[in-house]
Amino acid sequence: ARFEFRWEDQFNLSLDPDKAREFHDQTLPQEGAKTAHFCSMCGPHFCSMKISEDVRQYARENGYQHDDEALRAGMEEKAREFVEAGSEIYSHQEKE
Fold first, then answer.
1. How far is CA 45 from the centre of its chain?
2. Residue 25: its pLDDT value, please?
3. Is residue 55 domain-shared with residue 30, that is, in the same domain?
4. How many angstroms separate the CA atoms of 21 and 29, rounded?
5. Fewer beta carbons under 10 A from the terminal one: N or C of the chain?
6. Residue 89 counted as domain residue
7. What is residue 4's predicted lDDT score, i.e. its pLDDT?
8. How many percent of the chain have pLDDT more than 70?
9. Which residues have a Cβ under 8 Å from the Cβ of 44 and sit 6 or more positions away?
10. Closest CA to 47 of 95, 16, 3
11. What pLDDT band is residue 26 in, cutting at 50, 70 and 90?
12. What pLDDT, on the 0 to 100 scale, is given for residue 36?
């Protein structure tokens, strides 16, 4: 249930489903967030479960048979992007 972001199943598996829903709703008050595919702990950009699902989707879409092939290809792609962007860890953005 957790990996698939089936929130209702997760709440129902808890010791106190009503309290679990209440805590969840406090941290993600907007209605759309209640069905989101991430939680409030890490958010959408750092969610390990979301990242794992993205890797699997990338593998399916690009014809990779195994996650490790997709990871290797993705790392090579990101390495090229990093070099093309100047190989700087911290980028400078102009203020508007």
1. 5
2. 76
3. no
4. 11
5. C
6. no
7. 65
8. 72
9. 36, 37, 38, 50
10. 3
11. confident
12. 63
